Amino acid sequence: EIKHISELILDYLNKDDSKVEYKKAEPFTTRVKNIDSSKAIKDLGHDPRTSPEEGIPKTIEWMKSIYGLEGK
Fold this sequence. Notes:
Oligomer: single chain
Number of strands: 0
Helix content: 40-55%
Strand content: under 5%
Distance between the termini: 27 Å
Order of helices and strands: HHH
Shape: flat
Largest sheet: none
């Protein structure tokens, strides 16, 4: 759920959700999404094993380093 991902990001950044606007899904939005990584595993040797709880902080720190935001 997007709210869970949003909370993980905000918690890591020590921010509240006062600027986040959660909206109901549009009628045409796919509610259930299944990820099939078999082609990435077969073709690229990519086998994802990182949970959102572990991966989000790593991604945030990587983005900070790319955009020169270390320490912020």
